[in-house]
Design a protein that fits this description.
The protein has 368 residues and is an alpha+beta fold. 42% of the residues lie in helices and 24% in strands.
């Protein structure tokens, strides 16, 4: 009897091991020879290869385990691009063509189904934005600034609408493994309170997701540079190699200081520069100044952009691109980004652009 019980336990353990969760990807790729497909996921600084397989007779198979549903990329070695999809421990089927794998189909992943539903929510506004952006570019090329400004406001309105759609998706799908990625898309635009609120809505089962861990770390950083906090000091060299500290630019005749993170290579930054110049010219004599922090790598490009855009204020940079120390200190992960400081170095505004910057500066200086 004892031997029978032991045997049954061994069989049960073996069966449990056999049922261990894993993913199985069965793929069919038309137009492929004996190419190698590579499964990888994005990590800080690049990609991590999860698996690879040789295509035989147009098919391939991969097996493995992931800790939780997550976005991965399936590409063909030697070819750019690939298919982005959500992998999870299930039987997944992929079909595509070697020349357009990014358009391939995925079935068998519940998280991918949720992601497809999320993208569908943005189809209408994406189509509108594409049409308006084409007209915006034409207006710019034709020199029709009035029309370009009007279209830019329409784009901003649609962008705001998309933001609300994304927030609604998070609220309606708090346990979805897609929700952290959606929140990450929003993170740049959120102030501390809203970021904390949206993170708090996520189900605790998502705490192991790396994106959630990263966002929580970012929240700590954001709290240190939130409106109402004293701006952290830093020192960088100006174009002549002279060290200039942020604190040296605060106070005295300067009642408001805009710490502006930008770069010569950043298109949106260059588009925003005329707005900053306009505000500087109107309010500089009343106490408004700008402290430009560049994320450039080339000194020549940096200096040329300063001259071309008529940026007549103080500029500093360590020419380290995204490794710029002050950018990390201020949790800047996209540019343009700015922080408006009062005469005591307290942050009174964040990411103010266009009319919003002019209105905030006018509101504060006109009361002094």
């Amino acid at each position: 009897m004892k031997k029978t019980v032991i045997l049954l336990l061994v069989v049960a353990v073996a069966a449990a091991c056999a049922r261990e969760p894993k993913f199985t990807i069965t793929g069919t790729i038309d137009g492929a020879g004996t190419d190698t497909v590579i499964l990888q996921k994005r990590i800080p600084g690049g990609y991590q290869v999860l698996d690879s397989a040789v295509i035989a007779n147009g098919t391939f198979k991969m097996e493995g385990v992931v800790d939780y549903p997550q976005m991965v990329n399936l590409g063909i070695k030697g070819k750019r691009g690939g298919l982005n999809f959500y992998i999870e421990n299930s039987d997944i089927t992929i079909h595509g063509h070697a020349d357009s794998l990014y358009m391939g189909s995925v079935s068998g992943s519940a998280a991918q189904g949720e992601y497809d539903s999320y993208k569908a929510l943005l189809d209408e506004t994406n189509a509108e934005m594409t049409k308006i952006y084409d007209n915006y570019r034409k207006a710019r090329m034709d020199g029709n600034e009035e029309l370009a400004t009007s279209l830019e406001k329409e784009l901003e309105a649609l962008d705001t609408k998309q933001g609300e759609i994304k927030k609604e998706f998070i609220a309606n799908n708090p346990a979805s493994f897609v929700a952290p990625a959606v929140l990450s898309e929003l993170a740049y635009y959120l102030e501390v309170d809203e970021m904390e609120s949206l993170l708090g809505k996520l189900d605790t089962t998502l705490n192991k997701v790396q994106t959630v861990v990263t966002l929580k770390d970012r929240l700590v950083q954001l709290k240190a540079v939130a409106v109402g906090q004293k701006a952290p000091d830093f020192t960088l060299n100006d174009p002549d190699g002279n060290p200039i500290s942020l604190s040296s630019k605060i106070g005295g005749q300067t009642k408001l200081l805009l710490v502006d993170f930008w770069a010569a290579w950043c298109g949106p930054c260059r588009q925003e520069n005329p707005n900053v110049v306009k505000v500087w010219k109107e309010y500089n004599k009343k106490g408004f100044d700008v402290f430009g922090v560049s994320l450039d790598r080339s000194r020549e490009d940096w200096l040329k952009a300063i001259q071309d855009d008529n940026l007549t204020w103080t500029h500093v940079s360590d020419l380290k691109y995204w490794d710029c120390a002050p950018a990390k200190l201020y949790a800047v992960n996209a540019i343009p980004s700015n922080f408006l400081l009062d005469g005591n170095g307290v942050i009174v505004g964040h990411n103010l652009r266009g009319d919003a910057l002019a209105q905030k500066v006018k509101e504060i200086l006109d009361t002094k």
